[in-house]
Hints:
This protein is mainly α. The chain has helices at residues 27-36, 39-43, 62-80, 84-93, 102-114, 122-133, 147-155, 179-202, 208-214, 216-228, 234-264, 269-274, 284-302, 305-327, 334-339, 345-354, 358-368. Magnesium ion binds next to helix 3 and helix 8.
Amino acid sequence: MLRxxxxxxxxxxxxxxxxxxxxxxxxxxxxxxxxxxxxxxxRLENKTQVFTPGLSDHFRxxxxxxxxxxxxxxxxxxxxxxxxxxxxxxxxxxxIGHPPFAHAGEEELDRQMRRHGxxxxxxxxALRIVESFEQRYARFPGLNLTFEVREGIVKHSKxxxxxxxxxxxxxxxxxxxxxxxxxxxxxxxxxxxxxxxDDAHSAGIIATEEIAAAVPRFAEIDDAIQTQFPGxxxxxxxxxxxxxxxxxxxxxxxxxxxxxxxxxxxxxxxxVREFPERLARFTPEAKRTSIELKRFLHAAxxxxxxxxxxxxxxxxxxxxxxxFYMRHPERLPESSYxxxxxxxxxxxxxxxxxxxxxxxxxxxxxxxxx
Length: 370
Ligand code: MG
């Protein structure tokens, strides 16, 4: 469909440290494999997505969420004729910069960093992970990923302004990333909106009727399922409806992107970069549904009393551990403590905490603060 807009792997700007090519894997396939073998990738298993484990064995964690995003992204990329390997690498890496305890963790680290005139953002942290924290190669620091994968990590959820003059200046500020990177953010949205419905429904926080009342498209789907399978168990009917919902959002992303590209008259991957707006888009109908889902989840789930209480507790714990290490940097692990000779302490503390899994955080907190 959009084969003409596919980012050609031969056109990659390559790696920071040149390497010989591989006999049968493309550069983007190698990047995908490097991400899967990274320690930061394995830590996703013990990082909260939305629901902390305990109540159920079936909640998503950041690893299973990442797998869902990857499958959706690959379906979209392959149907549109884009580069599946670049898409897959970006989807697998899209959350590796997430700190423990999901958004509570990210917001609190950012709040702490701002007190020191700095900031925390998970995409930038992901870049630091793949550029330096992963130490797996004798000849260079980090994973030495291709330019396009690093660019996608920085830009998958937002573009860089044309006057960006930070360290990120090398990532083509003012230009859009390739379509393969643009679609990750929307695939992520499909994955988390529908997965959060599922997890909240199984946790008993929301009922099918409430979703139907807030999201007309879901009501329509649910009606059809009720007519088609009147005798099926309520839980199975919910899954049937959820599956149709995911399918309609993914189809909306494929169609919306194909349509936007056609209307823009964009004919090459270079023109994708230069076009003033992103071309990965939902159809207007799918976009409306996605917005309604988000609005509903915010009100009924993310800000529901049990989740709000958890979030506050976790944010307070992150804040306390951060302040503890600022007062006692000597209690940091030796490898981090050494870094504090050449970097501001708050940066070292932030990087150390951001890398933790939920479980490691809890153990460290208990030892440090009790
Ligand atoms: Mg995500």
